[in-house]
Amino acid sequence: MSQTIAFIGLGNMGGGMAANLLKNGFAVRAFDLSDDALAKAEAAGAVRCASAAEAVAQADAVVSMLPAGSHVESVYTGEIFDAAQPGALFLDCSTIDVATARRVEEAAQAKGFEMVDAPVSGGIAAAAGGTLTFMVGGSDAAFGRAKPILAAMGKAVIHAGGAGNGQAAKICNNMLLGATMVATCESFAMAKKLGLDPQTFYDISSVSSGQSWSMTSYCPVPGVGPQSPSDNGYQGGFAVGLMLKDLKLATQAAASVNASVPMGNAAEALYQLLANRGEAARDFSLMIELLEGK
Ligand code: NAD
Question: Which residues form the 6-phosphogluconate dehydrogenase NADP-binding domain (predicted)?
């Protein structure tokens, strides 16, 4: 018999993810605070529910894709723990702080449930296309149960260790991405001022030791490298506001364990500047315009 999944939070990411569960034979019971999101989920084949409690009451597993830790904690502790069937598995795919992820997973365990944190790499297109990468924290047993559900929504499902380690992997990865994007942008901006053609610099650096994903898969200079948001006026892609959110999570986590993250701190300050210029919705490779002094 097919498994029933309660899906909580069907926004930009969750909407596509729920549609992929449906395509892969899962039944989906949907709840979101937004009517619009619920209508889209219903059109994709989900059952529309009036509350999180109603959605989870008849579900084998719960997947959540919510904005932040406060939403996750209040939905699980306020509704899901009390309404879920015994033995239901919980999968939180939101990007949230490590401490909240660990606290909610501990609370789930205390109530006799298994839970994983399973944040994703990949944006809205990957969510819609079922090509996300999931970084999963939780016990071996919980991971084993979560894997087939996550595999229906992604191309890779990786066990990162115990509770909260999925979130740890996600924020460390995105801090690295933020820092390499800033470094790539400042290098292109400086190369230009020194009279070096951006395409020529790309041809050299992309096969030299300065190469990174930010350069060769997501070049911030329009017309250079493979197609990327820079070729589309920095629309779509990964928003400045979301990069800033992840950098804040990363630097807060760093402070909580006394880790020195000078590059992460610098990237956070620079993305804050970009957001303060009203650019939170545009792609994060727009950093090049800030560093070019535009
Ligand atoms: P979104 O704002 O589009 O969707 C969040 C949804 O949650 C909204 O539809 C909102 O109505 C709903 N919601 C909020 N509180 C709720 C509650 N109490 N009960 C039920 N529904 C509630 O955000 P998104 O872009 O889909 O991002 C979701 C998560 O995925 C975030 O944690 C984000 O950091 C992470 N993420 C996003 C991207 C991206 O490119 N958008 C990429 C990777 C990870």
Answer: 4-161
For residue 12, pLDDT over 70 is answered with yes
CA 9 to centroid of ligand 1, rounded, Å: 6
Contact 88, 99 (CB under 8 A): no
Helix (H, G, I), strand (E, B) or coil at 169: helix
Mapped onto helix, strand or coil, the DSSP state of residue 261 is: coil
Tell me which amino acid residue 38 is. Answer: L
Residue 1 pLDDT exceeds 70: no
Domain with CATH 1.10.1040.10 in the chain: 168-291
Q: Which atom of ligand 1 is nearest to the CA of 239?
A: 40
Give 167-181 pLDDT, tens digit per residue. Answer: 999 999 999 999 999
The whole model's pTM is what? 0.95
Q: Which two tokens stand for residue 188?
A: 């292109």
Reply yes or no on domain 168-291 having CATH 2.40.50.140: no
In this predicted model, what pLDDT tens digit does every residue of 125-157 receive, in sequence order?
999 999 999 999 999 999 999 999 999 999 999
**Residues forming CATH 3.40.50.720 domain(s) in the chain:** 4-162
Residues 39 and 33 sit within 8 Å (Cβ to Cβ): no
Closest CA to 101 of 133, 76, 79: 76
Residue 11 CB coordination number (10 Å):
18
Active site residues: 170
Average pLDDT, the chain: 97
Return the CATH class of domain 4-162: alpha beta
**How far away, in angstroms, is 292 Cα from ligand 1 center?**
32
Distance between CA atoms of residues 280 and 294, nearest Å: 16
- Coil/strand/helix, residue 162: coil
User: Which phi and psi angles does 122 have, rounded to 5°?
Assistant: 120, 145
pLDDT 10s digits, 95-117: 999 999 999 999 999 999 999 99
